[in-house]
């Protein structure tokens, strides 16, 4: 049994910063994440993309932000259970909780802070019968490291920002040797700038744009070698490629947390904005996983929510103590 002051479910940016804020209050944290690495969406979906709205950082790569958050949390020695989804929660007689993972690892704490973001990641997959045979053999649903595609032929499918941005990035920076973008419509849902850029690059022959079409088949001996692309009117063509990257977004799914008796609205956990507490005393929800009037799913909002929630958690753990806010400039960071 792992014992701590606060169990944080989700080691995304919001969960990681909560470790720091908890540390300032002398509270120890243990994080659980179903992914094998910390960083949530920043590490899993867009580690090499720059973020421009983190206060004090005019631009920071998502992966770098995660590295910095890990460094900031390090003095408070957080524990990690990675690669294991939290599946069960049991309230104890004294009001504390035991959280158990899919592999049976048990964690005990008086406070549970859910920072589960979009929940358990599930990419939307195109309905191609043999697609699972080629996963990680040329089919990827997320671009983690663009360098992986250096010198390779890539077919990206989708009509949103991810599909547009990655097509532009891989083609313009001459990372992939060939970039084709397949989309079932002739109009795109992404930002107008990106749409225009894709059309410009297509005109210059830098991106091959295949619209009003869908990938309907994958062929190859043990790995992707070609795709069957079906045009709405003109029939099928074969496109040779090394990679097929359908970027149709992620299915938001709270996963097991949805069955914990928490008040849920639109696939998110309802919270009281005074302290981001849920309907179950002792359980808080911060970051993308929560909802309230005016909610913005932004990293900086999650940082704020965690900071406020931890003040409330401190009062629950130490009802006898009065916490006086101390500036880090005055007190410094006293690690454990
Ligand atoms: C392409 C893209 C670009 C973006 N750009 C920006 C931007 O410029 N600025 C900005 O502020 N925001 C941006 N965002 C949004 C930002 O990434 C999110 O707001 C942020 O990641 C939320 O952090 P989080 O810690 O709440 O959740 P997440 O990052 O989603 O992390 C949640 C973690 O919880 C884990 N988890 C969930 N359920 C369980 C469970 N039951 N057991 C164990 N682990 C669990 C997940 O595996 C995940 O690692 C962008 C998002 C995307 C997809």
The CATH topology label of the largest domain is FAD/NAD(P)-binding domain
**Main sheet summary:** 5 strands, parallel
What is the CATH-assigned architecture of the largest domain? Answer: 3-Layer(bba) Sandwich
Quickly count the domains.
2
Alpha-carbon Rg, integer: 23 Å
Mean pLDDT: 95
List keywords for this structure.
single chain; about 325 residues; alpha/beta; FAD/NAD(P)-binding domain; 5-stranded parallel sheet; 4-stranded mixed sheet; 21 strands; about 25% helix; binds flavin-adenine dinucleotide
Structure overview:
By secondary structure, the protein is an alpha/beta fold. The protein folds into two domains: 2-121 and 250-331, FAD/NAD(P)-binding domain (3-Layer(bba) Sandwich); 125-246, FAD/NAD(P)-binding domain (3-Layer(bba) Sandwich), CATH 3.50.50. Helix content is 23%, strand content 25%. The strands form six sheets. The chain has a five-stranded parallel beta sheet, covered by helices on one side. Strands 1-9-8-7 form a four-stranded mixed beta sheet, with no helix packed on it. The model has no long low-confidence stretch (mean pLDDT 95). Bound molecules: flavin-adenine dinucleotide. Flavin-adenine dinucleotide binds next to helix 1, strand 3, helix 2 and helix 6.
